[in-house]
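Progress note, project year one: complex with fe (ii) ion.
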Amino acid sequence: MSKRMASTALPLVSNSARAFVVSARAATRIALLTLALIAASASAQAQVTLTHGPITGAVDANDATVFTRTSDVATVAIQYSTDSGMANPTSSSSFTTNANDDFTSNIQLTGLTPETAYYLNVLVNGVPQLTAPFPTFTTFPVAGSVRQFKFIYLTDFAAQSSQPPGLTFGTFSAAAAENPKFVYIGGDFDHSGPITIQGKRTMFKLLYDPTQSGLADFVNKILRGMAIVHCWDDHDSGPDNDSKTYSGWDWSYQVFREYVPMYATPAPQPAVYQSFSYGQVDFWATDMRSQRDDEYDVDGPHKSMLNATRLGPQSELAWLENGLLKSSATWKIIISSDGVANPTVRYPDLWAGYQTEFVALRNFINSNQIKNVVFLTNDLHFGGIDDGAESGFPEMTVGAVNLLIAPGSTCRASNVGKWDVGTYYNDTGPCYQYGVITVSTNPDQLLLQIKDDQGNVRISYTVNAN
Ligand SMILES: [Fe+2]
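Model obtained:
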Protein backbone atom coordinates (compact mmCIF):
# COMPACT_ATOMS: atom_id res chain seq x y z
CA MET A 1 0.00 0.00 0.00
CA SER A 2 1.36 3.24 -1.08
CA LYS A 3 1.77 5.95 1.37
CA ARG A 4 -0.75 7.92 -0.60
CA MET A 5 -3.24 5.09 -0.53
CA ALA A 6 -2.73 4.64 3.14
CA SER A 7 -3.30 8.28 3.76
CA THR A 8 -6.50 8.22 1.72
CA ALA A 9 -7.73 4.79 2.71
CA LEU A 10 -7.40 5.17 6.44
CA PRO A 11 -9.81 8.05 6.82
CA LEU A 12 -12.50 6.08 4.99
CA VAL A 13 -12.34 3.22 7.42
CA SER A 14 -10.56 4.32 10.54
CA ASN A 15 -11.44 7.98 11.03
CA SER A 16 -14.97 7.24 12.05
CA ALA A 17 -13.77 4.50 14.39
CA ARG A 18 -11.13 6.86 15.78
CA ALA A 19 -13.74 9.56 16.13
CA PHE A 20 -15.91 7.12 18.03
CA VAL A 21 -13.00 6.13 20.28
CA VAL A 22 -12.08 9.78 20.83
CA SER A 23 -15.67 10.72 21.50
CA ALA A 24 -16.13 7.85 23.97
CA ARG A 25 -12.94 8.80 25.79
CA ALA A 26 -13.96 12.45 25.84
CA ALA A 27 -17.37 11.56 27.18
CA THR A 28 -15.81 9.46 29.91
CA ARG A 29 -13.39 12.24 30.77
CA ILE A 30 -16.21 14.79 30.82
CA ALA A 31 -18.31 12.52 33.00
CA LEU A 32 -15.43 11.97 35.42
CA LEU A 33 -14.66 15.67 35.44
CA THR A 34 -18.29 16.50 36.08
CA LEU A 35 -18.44 13.99 38.93
CA ALA A 36 -15.26 15.42 40.36
CA LEU A 37 -16.64 18.95 40.10
CA ILE A 38 -19.91 17.91 41.72
CA ALA A 39 -18.01 16.14 44.49
CA ALA A 40 -15.72 19.13 44.96
CA SER A 41 -18.67 21.50 44.97
CA ALA A 42 -20.56 19.35 47.50
CA SER A 43 -17.45 19.13 49.61
CA ALA A 44 -16.89 22.88 49.42
CA GLN A 45 -20.53 23.51 50.30
CA ALA A 46 -20.32 21.11 53.22
CA GLN A 47 -17.23 22.92 54.46
CA VAL A 48 -18.96 26.30 54.61
CA THR A 49 -20.02 26.77 58.21
CA LEU A 50 -21.74 29.18 60.55
CA THR A 51 -19.07 31.45 62.04
CA HIS A 52 -21.20 33.93 64.04
CA GLY A 53 -24.72 34.13 65.39
CA PRO A 54 -27.53 33.56 65.56
CA ILE A 55 -28.26 36.88 67.27
CA THR A 56 -31.83 38.12 67.35
CA GLY A 57 -33.05 41.71 67.24
CA ALA A 58 -35.87 43.89 65.93
CA VAL A 59 -38.26 41.81 68.00
CA ASP A 60 -41.90 42.76 68.45
CA ALA A 61 -45.03 40.71 69.07
CA ASN A 62 -44.93 38.85 65.74
CA ASP A 63 -41.55 39.46 64.12
CA ALA A 64 -37.85 39.12 64.70
CA THR A 65 -34.66 39.47 62.69
CA VAL A 66 -31.87 36.92 63.04
CA PHE A 67 -28.26 37.76 62.27
CA THR A 68 -25.82 35.09 61.07
CA ARG A 69 -22.48 34.95 59.31
CA THR A 70 -21.01 32.10 57.28
CA SER A 71 -17.42 31.27 56.38
CA ASP A 72 -18.06 31.63 52.64
CA VAL A 73 -20.88 31.93 50.14
CA ALA A 74 -23.76 29.76 51.29
CA THR A 75 -27.50 29.45 51.39
CA VAL A 76 -28.72 30.25 54.90
CA ALA A 77 -32.11 29.66 56.48
CA ILE A 78 -33.27 29.91 60.08
CA GLN A 79 -35.05 26.97 61.66
CA TYR A 80 -37.23 27.95 64.58
CA SER A 81 -39.42 26.12 67.02
CA THR A 82 -41.26 26.72 70.28
CA ASP A 83 -39.77 23.46 71.54
CA SER A 84 -36.40 23.71 73.27
CA GLY A 85 -35.38 20.51 71.51
CA MET A 86 -36.34 21.99 68.12
CA ALA A 87 -39.23 19.59 67.49
CA ASN A 88 -41.37 20.41 64.43
CA PRO A 89 -39.28 23.36 63.31
CA THR A 90 -40.36 25.94 60.77
CA SER A 91 -37.84 27.15 58.21
CA SER A 92 -37.52 30.77 57.19
CA SER A 93 -36.99 31.88 53.64
CA SER A 94 -33.39 31.36 52.59
CA PHE A 95 -30.72 33.91 51.82
CA THR A 96 -27.50 33.48 49.87
CA THR A 97 -24.60 35.17 51.58
CA ASN A 98 -22.01 37.08 49.59
CA ALA A 99 -18.60 38.62 50.03
CA ASN A 100 -19.91 42.17 49.64
CA ASP A 101 -21.79 41.79 52.91
CA ASP A 102 -18.96 39.83 54.54
CA PHE A 103 -21.14 36.69 54.30
CA THR A 104 -23.61 38.09 56.86
CA SER A 105 -27.36 37.79 56.72
CA ASN A 106 -30.25 39.28 58.64
CA ILE A 107 -33.26 37.08 58.03
CA GLN A 108 -36.70 38.19 59.17
CA LEU A 109 -39.04 35.78 60.92
CA THR A 110 -42.72 36.71 60.64
CA GLY A 111 -46.03 35.37 61.90
CA LEU A 112 -44.65 34.59 65.36
CA THR A 113 -46.82 34.21 68.44
CA PRO A 114 -46.56 37.02 71.01
CA GLU A 115 -44.75 36.44 74.31
CA THR A 116 -43.49 33.06 73.20
CA ALA A 117 -40.02 31.59 73.55
CA TYR A 118 -38.51 30.49 70.24
CA TYR A 119 -35.47 28.29 69.76
CA LEU A 120 -33.19 28.62 66.76
CA ASN A 121 -30.99 26.53 64.53
CA VAL A 122 -29.22 27.70 61.40
CA LEU A 123 -29.22 25.77 58.13
CA VAL A 124 -26.11 26.42 56.04
CA ASN A 125 -26.49 24.81 52.62
CA GLY A 126 -29.20 22.73 54.26
CA VAL A 127 -26.99 21.46 57.07
CA PRO A 128 -28.07 22.24 60.67
CA GLN A 129 -25.20 23.97 62.43
CA LEU A 130 -26.17 23.80 66.10
CA THR A 131 -27.05 21.25 68.74
CA ALA A 132 -28.87 21.69 72.05
CA PRO A 133 -29.01 23.93 74.00
CA PHE A 134 -30.33 26.03 71.14
CA PRO A 135 -30.21 29.85 71.08
CA THR A 136 -33.46 31.44 72.14
CA PHE A 137 -35.42 34.67 72.38
CA THR A 138 -38.95 35.57 73.43
CA THR A 139 -41.33 37.68 71.38
CA PHE A 140 -42.76 40.88 72.88
CA PRO A 141 -46.37 41.47 74.01
CA VAL A 142 -49.05 42.73 71.66
CA ALA A 143 -48.89 46.53 71.36
CA GLY A 144 -50.89 48.24 74.06
CA SER A 145 -50.44 45.47 76.61
CA VAL A 146 -49.51 46.23 80.20
CA ARG A 147 -46.78 44.06 81.67
CA GLN A 148 -44.39 43.77 84.57
CA PHE A 149 -40.95 42.97 83.21
CA LYS A 150 -37.22 43.55 83.38
CA PHE A 151 -34.61 44.46 80.84
CA ILE A 152 -30.87 44.90 81.21
CA TYR A 153 -28.34 47.45 80.00
CA LEU A 154 -24.80 46.30 79.16
CA THR A 155 -22.37 48.85 77.83
CA ASP A 156 -18.80 50.05 77.25
CA PHE A 157 -16.97 46.86 76.36
CA ALA A 158 -13.20 46.47 76.49
CA ALA A 159 -11.38 46.52 73.15
CA GLN A 160 -11.50 42.79 72.60
CA SER A 161 -8.49 42.72 70.28
CA SER A 162 -6.28 43.74 73.20
CA GLN A 163 -7.84 41.70 76.00
CA PRO A 164 -5.35 39.24 77.52
CA PRO A 165 -6.25 35.53 77.40
CA GLY A 166 -7.95 33.63 80.17
CA LEU A 167 -10.32 36.30 81.49
CA THR A 168 -13.64 35.54 83.11
CA PHE A 169 -16.32 37.99 84.17
CA GLY A 170 -19.34 37.35 86.37
CA THR A 171 -21.16 40.32 84.90
CA PHE A 172 -22.71 38.49 81.95
CA SER A 173 -23.89 35.50 83.91
CA ALA A 174 -25.37 37.68 86.65
CA ALA A 175 -27.12 39.88 84.10
CA ALA A 176 -28.55 36.88 82.23
CA ALA A 177 -29.84 35.45 85.51
CA GLU A 178 -32.11 38.49 85.86
CA ASN A 179 -34.32 36.79 83.27
CA PRO A 180 -34.75 39.99 81.27
CA LYS A 181 -37.02 40.29 78.25
CA PHE A 182 -34.24 41.93 76.22
CA VAL A 183 -30.84 43.56 76.52
CA TYR A 184 -29.89 47.04 75.41
CA ILE A 185 -26.24 47.01 74.35
CA GLY A 186 -24.89 50.50 74.71
CA GLY A 187 -22.19 52.17 72.71
CA ASP A 188 -18.45 51.75 72.79
CA PHE A 189 -19.16 48.16 71.78
CA ASP A 190 -16.16 48.03 71.91
CA HIS A 191 -13.48 50.70 72.49
CA SER A 192 -11.17 49.72 69.62
CA GLY A 193 -12.14 52.64 67.38
CA PRO A 194 -11.86 50.75 64.08
CA ILE A 195 -11.24 52.90 61.01
CA THR A 196 -11.14 50.48 58.07
CA ILE A 197 -14.12 48.47 56.91
CA GLN A 198 -12.30 45.25 57.76
CA GLY A 199 -11.43 46.62 61.19
CA LYS A 200 -15.06 47.48 61.82
CA ARG A 201 -16.10 43.95 60.84
CA THR A 202 -13.37 42.39 62.95
CA MET A 203 -14.63 44.27 66.01
CA PHE A 204 -18.04 42.60 65.73
CA LYS A 205 -16.54 39.20 64.89
CA LEU A 206 -14.49 39.24 68.08
CA LEU A 207 -17.40 40.44 70.23
CA TYR A 208 -19.67 37.73 68.81
CA ASP A 209 -17.13 34.94 69.40
CA PRO A 210 -17.64 32.81 72.54
CA THR A 211 -14.05 31.58 72.43
CA GLN A 212 -12.74 35.11 72.96
CA SER A 213 -11.26 35.90 76.36
CA GLY A 214 -14.03 36.61 78.87
CA LEU A 215 -16.88 36.51 76.34
CA ALA A 216 -18.26 32.96 76.65
CA ASP A 217 -21.14 33.97 78.92
CA PHE A 218 -21.81 37.11 76.92
CA VAL A 219 -22.24 35.20 73.68
CA ASN A 220 -23.89 32.07 75.04
CA LYS A 221 -26.16 33.59 77.70
CA ILE A 222 -26.85 37.11 76.42
CA LEU A 223 -26.49 37.19 72.63
CA ARG A 224 -27.90 33.67 72.22
CA GLY A 225 -30.33 33.99 75.11
CA MET A 226 -32.48 37.05 74.45
CA ALA A 227 -33.41 39.80 72.00
CA ILE A 228 -30.91 42.62 71.60
CA VAL A 229 -31.17 46.31 70.79
CA HIS A 230 -28.00 48.26 70.04
CA CYS A 231 -26.85 51.72 69.06
CA TRP A 232 -23.30 52.98 68.73
CA ASP A 233 -21.09 55.59 70.35
CA ASP A 234 -17.78 57.01 69.14
CA HIS A 235 -15.29 54.23 69.88
CA ASP A 236 -17.33 51.63 68.01
CA SER A 237 -18.39 53.84 65.10
CA GLY A 238 -15.06 55.53 64.38
CA PRO A 239 -12.46 57.70 66.05
CA ASP A 240 -12.72 59.21 69.52
CA ASN A 241 -15.27 62.05 69.75
CA ASP A 242 -16.59 61.51 66.22
CA SER A 243 -19.42 63.67 64.93
CA LYS A 244 -21.27 64.28 61.64
CA THR A 245 -17.96 65.31 60.06
CA TYR A 246 -16.37 61.84 60.36
CA SER A 247 -15.46 60.70 56.86
CA GLY A 248 -16.04 56.99 57.51
CA TRP A 249 -19.77 57.01 58.32
CA ASP A 250 -20.70 55.04 55.18
CA TRP A 251 -18.45 52.16 56.20
CA SER A 252 -19.62 52.33 59.82
CA TYR A 253 -23.23 52.21 58.64
CA GLN A 254 -22.61 49.37 56.21
CA VAL A 255 -20.97 47.21 58.86
CA PHE A 256 -23.59 48.09 61.48
CA ARG A 257 -26.32 46.96 59.08
CA GLU A 258 -24.38 43.79 58.33
CA TYR A 259 -23.80 42.84 61.95
CA VAL A 260 -26.70 44.30 63.98
CA PRO A 261 -30.29 43.14 63.56
CA MET A 262 -32.04 46.49 63.97
CA TYR A 263 -35.57 47.82 63.92
CA ALA A 264 -36.93 49.48 60.82
CA THR A 265 -36.13 53.14 61.19
CA PRO A 266 -36.87 56.37 59.38
CA ALA A 267 -33.27 57.37 60.02
CA PRO A 268 -31.43 58.56 56.91
CA GLN A 269 -28.10 56.83 56.31
CA PRO A 270 -25.81 56.78 58.28
CA ALA A 271 -27.99 57.31 61.38
CA VAL A 272 -29.02 54.19 63.31
CA TYR A 273 -31.59 55.53 65.77
CA GLN A 274 -34.53 53.22 66.38
CA SER A 275 -37.75 53.18 68.40
CA PHE A 276 -39.58 50.21 69.83
CA SER A 277 -42.07 49.35 72.54
CA TYR A 278 -42.51 46.76 75.24
CA GLY A 279 -45.81 46.77 77.14
CA GLN A 280 -46.48 50.21 78.59
CA VAL A 281 -43.02 51.52 77.75
CA ASP A 282 -41.95 53.32 74.57
CA PHE A 283 -38.23 53.48 73.84
CA TRP A 284 -36.13 55.82 71.72
CA ALA A 285 -32.70 54.33 71.16
CA THR A 286 -30.85 57.40 69.97
CA ASP A 287 -27.82 57.85 67.73
CA MET A 288 -25.90 60.64 69.41
CA ARG A 289 -22.87 60.49 67.12
CA SER A 290 -23.69 60.66 63.43
CA GLN A 291 -26.20 63.48 63.88
CA ARG A 292 -24.18 65.76 66.16
CA ASP A 293 -22.08 68.83 65.63
CA ASP A 294 -18.52 68.75 66.85
CA GLU A 295 -18.35 68.90 70.61
CA TYR A 296 -15.90 71.81 70.56
CA ASP A 297 -18.30 74.06 68.65
CA VAL A 298 -19.56 76.92 70.77
CA ASP A 299 -22.84 76.04 72.44
CA GLY A 300 -25.80 77.95 71.09
CA PRO A 301 -28.81 77.61 68.80
CA HIS A 302 -26.64 76.29 65.97
CA LYS A 303 -24.97 73.49 67.94
CA SER A 304 -26.93 70.25 67.85
CA MET A 305 -26.68 66.73 69.22
CA LEU A 306 -29.59 65.43 67.13
CA ASN A 307 -29.99 67.77 64.18
CA ALA A 308 -26.51 68.67 63.00
CA THR A 309 -27.41 67.51 59.51
CA ARG A 310 -30.17 70.18 59.49
CA LEU A 311 -32.86 67.84 58.26
CA GLY A 312 -35.62 69.73 60.00
CA PRO A 313 -38.77 67.60 60.12
CA GLN A 314 -36.71 64.60 58.93
CA SER A 315 -34.14 65.00 61.71
CA GLU A 316 -33.50 62.75 64.67
CA LEU A 317 -34.60 65.62 66.93
CA ALA A 318 -37.97 65.81 65.16
CA TRP A 319 -38.29 62.01 65.29
CA LEU A 320 -37.73 62.09 69.05
CA GLU A 321 -40.00 65.06 69.77
CA ASN A 322 -42.83 63.83 67.54
CA GLY A 323 -42.53 60.35 69.01
CA LEU A 324 -42.72 61.67 72.55
CA LEU A 325 -45.68 63.86 71.63
CA LYS A 326 -47.63 61.00 70.09
CA SER A 327 -46.78 58.41 72.70
CA SER A 328 -49.58 57.18 74.92
CA ALA A 329 -47.26 54.85 76.84
CA THR A 330 -46.99 55.18 80.59
CA TRP A 331 -43.20 55.44 80.35
CA LYS A 332 -41.03 57.14 77.74
CA ILE A 333 -37.45 56.00 77.97
CA ILE A 334 -34.74 57.79 76.02
CA ILE A 335 -31.79 55.44 75.72
CA SER A 336 -28.59 56.89 74.48
CA SER A 337 -24.97 56.14 73.91
CA ASP A 338 -23.00 59.15 75.06
CA GLY A 339 -26.04 61.25 75.78
CA VAL A 340 -25.74 61.72 79.53
CA ALA A 341 -28.37 64.28 80.45
CA ASN A 342 -26.82 65.23 83.79
CA PRO A 343 -24.84 68.41 82.98
CA THR A 344 -22.51 68.11 85.99
CA VAL A 345 -20.30 65.49 84.34
CA ARG A 346 -17.77 65.43 81.52
CA TYR A 347 -17.86 68.53 79.35
CA PRO A 348 -18.35 69.05 76.42
CA ASP A 349 -19.11 65.75 74.64
CA LEU A 350 -22.27 64.93 76.60
CA TRP A 351 -25.44 67.03 76.78
CA ALA A 352 -23.37 69.30 79.04
CA GLY A 353 -21.81 70.71 75.89
CA TYR A 354 -25.12 70.98 74.03
CA GLN A 355 -27.17 72.70 76.72
CA THR A 356 -29.03 75.07 74.41
CA GLU A 357 -30.59 72.16 72.52
CA PHE A 358 -31.12 70.14 75.69
CA VAL A 359 -32.94 72.97 77.45
CA ALA A 360 -35.14 73.41 74.39
CA LEU A 361 -35.90 69.67 74.41
CA ARG A 362 -36.74 69.81 78.11
CA ASN A 363 -38.99 72.80 77.53
CA PHE A 364 -40.71 70.96 74.69
CA ILE A 365 -41.37 67.96 76.95
CA ASN A 366 -42.59 70.07 79.85
CA SER A 367 -44.69 72.51 77.85
CA ASN A 368 -46.44 69.60 76.14
CA GLN A 369 -46.99 67.96 79.52
CA ILE A 370 -45.25 64.79 78.43
CA LYS A 371 -44.93 62.77 81.63
CA ASN A 372 -42.62 60.06 82.88
CA VAL A 373 -39.62 60.64 80.63
CA VAL A 374 -36.53 58.81 81.88
CA PHE A 375 -32.97 58.79 80.51
CA LEU A 376 -30.77 55.68 80.42
CA THR A 377 -27.22 56.55 79.46
CA ASN A 378 -23.60 55.37 79.48
CA ASP A 379 -19.94 56.14 78.74
CA LEU A 380 -18.87 57.61 82.07
CA HIS A 381 -17.61 54.09 82.91
CA PHE A 382 -19.15 54.45 86.35
CA GLY A 383 -22.69 54.01 87.57
CA GLY A 384 -24.90 56.83 88.72
CA ILE A 385 -28.56 57.53 89.40
CA ASP A 386 -30.14 60.94 89.65
CA ASP A 387 -33.73 61.62 90.66
CA GLY A 388 -34.10 64.46 88.16
CA ALA A 389 -32.59 67.21 90.25
CA GLU A 390 -29.66 67.74 87.86
CA SER A 391 -31.15 67.51 84.36
CA GLY A 392 -34.87 67.69 85.01
CA PHE A 393 -35.36 63.97 84.29
CA PRO A 394 -34.67 60.83 86.29
CA GLU A 395 -31.52 59.27 84.86
CA MET A 396 -29.50 56.12 85.33
CA THR A 397 -26.06 55.99 83.73
CA VAL A 398 -24.46 52.56 83.52
CA GLY A 399 -20.72 51.87 83.82
CA ALA A 400 -18.46 49.60 81.86
CA VAL A 401 -19.13 45.90 81.71
CA ASN A 402 -15.64 44.39 81.38
CA LEU A 403 -13.00 47.13 81.17
CA LEU A 404 -9.76 46.05 82.85
CA ILE A 405 -8.32 48.71 85.14
CA ALA A 406 -4.77 48.66 86.46
CA PRO A 407 -4.44 48.47 90.24
CA GLY A 408 -4.46 51.98 91.67
CA SER A 409 -6.29 53.45 88.66
CA THR A 410 -9.88 54.57 88.57
CA CYS A 411 -12.57 52.97 86.46
CA ARG A 412 -14.17 56.38 85.92
CA ALA A 413 -13.90 58.10 82.53
CA SER A 414 -15.22 61.38 83.89
CA ASN A 415 -15.40 63.58 86.91
CA VAL A 416 -18.06 62.19 89.23
CA GLY A 417 -20.31 65.23 89.09
CA LYS A 418 -23.44 65.27 91.20
CA TRP A 419 -25.85 62.32 91.26
CA ASP A 420 -28.52 62.80 93.88
CA VAL A 421 -29.30 59.12 94.45
CA GLY A 422 -25.78 57.74 94.31
CA THR A 423 -22.79 56.51 92.33
CA TYR A 424 -20.86 53.28 91.98
CA TYR A 425 -17.20 53.35 90.98
CA ASN A 426 -13.77 52.39 92.22
CA ASP A 427 -10.75 54.68 92.23
CA THR A 428 -8.28 51.82 92.77
CA GLY A 429 -9.43 49.25 90.23
CA PRO A 430 -12.26 48.04 88.01
CA CYS A 431 -15.98 48.49 88.67
CA TYR A 432 -17.58 45.88 86.37
CA GLN A 433 -21.33 46.45 86.32
CA TYR A 434 -24.65 46.29 84.52
CA GLY A 435 -28.00 48.05 84.76
CA VAL A 436 -31.35 46.41 85.50
CA ILE A 437 -34.66 48.17 84.91
CA THR A 438 -37.76 46.61 86.45
CA VAL A 439 -41.11 47.88 85.19
CA SER A 440 -44.01 47.25 87.54
CA THR A 441 -47.69 48.17 87.79
CA ASN A 442 -50.19 48.99 90.55
CA PRO A 443 -48.61 51.38 91.16
CA ASP A 444 -46.72 52.15 87.96
CA GLN A 445 -43.04 52.23 88.89
CA LEU A 446 -39.59 51.90 87.37
CA LEU A 447 -36.95 50.36 89.59
CA LEU A 448 -33.52 51.49 88.38
CA GLN A 449 -30.59 49.44 89.66
CA ILE A 450 -26.86 49.31 89.12
CA LYS A 451 -25.46 45.90 90.00
CA ASP A 452 -21.87 44.72 90.20
CA ASP A 453 -20.35 41.68 88.52
CA GLN A 454 -21.66 39.43 91.29
CA GLY A 455 -25.21 40.71 90.94
CA ASN A 456 -25.06 42.79 94.13
CA VAL A 457 -27.15 45.97 94.11
CA ARG A 458 -24.88 49.03 94.30
CA ILE A 459 -27.41 51.79 93.58
CA SER A 460 -31.18 51.56 93.53
CA TYR A 461 -33.96 54.07 92.93
CA THR A 462 -37.66 53.81 92.27
CA VAL A 463 -39.32 56.25 89.89
CA ASN A 464 -43.05 56.66 90.52
CA ALA A 465 -45.24 57.49 87.54
CA ASN A 466 -47.03 60.81 87.51
FE1 LIG B 1 -16.78 54.34 76.75
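The chain has three domains: 1-47, 50-135, 149-464.
The first strand starts at residue 50 and ends at 57.
No further modelling is planned for this target in the current period.
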